[in-house]
Amino acid sequence: MAGAKVGGEDQDLIDTHYERALELSMGRNAGLYLAYAEAVSVPNQDMPEFRSLVRQALDIDPDQDPDKRLLNLIAQRRALWLLSRSEELILDEGDVSELKGGRP
């Protein structure tokens, strides 16, 4: 996946691996949600998806899986950081238009 590109054929591969990783972790790995948010939602400039994924990471109870407690706590700290910077990571339509010099 290191050379995979968001969109097109690679997007299917990315989604397949993401879904499998979620399945294997039983949805208890906050880092998976953040990795997908940063690798897919940010390049696609998809704010609703980005926020949903970050919230899913924050909703995980770190005590549910003691072996992964520290990893989830660290991921949740990153999730809060990402959420606080979401406006910088994902531009709204007005910002994009301004960057393009007012062109659509």
Notes on the structure:
The protein has 104 residues and is mainly α. The chain has helices at residues 8-25, 30-41, 47-59, 69-84, 86-89, 93-99. The longest helix is centred in the N-terminal third of the chain and has 18 residues, at 8-25. The mean pLDDT is 89.
Short description:
With 104 residues, this protein is mainly alpha-helical. The protein contains six helices and no strands.
Q: Quickly count the helices.
A: 6
Q: Give the overall shape.
A: flat
Query: Percent of residues in beta strands?
Result: under 5%
Which class of secondary structure composition applies to the elements? Answer: mainly alpha
The poorly predicted ranges are none
Write down the overall mean pLDDT. Answer: 89
Please write the string of helix (H) and strand (E) elements.
Answer: HHHHHH
For the secondary structure, the number of strands is 0
The CA-CA distance between the termini, in Å, is 32 Å
Radius of gyration: 15 Å
Q: Share of helix among residues?
A: 55-70%
Main sheet summary = none
Question: Mind sketching the topology for me?
Answer:
Blueprint: H1 8-25, H2 30-41, H3 47-59, H4 69-84, H5 86-89, H6 93-99
Helix pairs in contact: 2-3, 3-4
Properties at a glance:
single chain, 104 residues, mainly alpha, 6 helices, 67% helix, flat
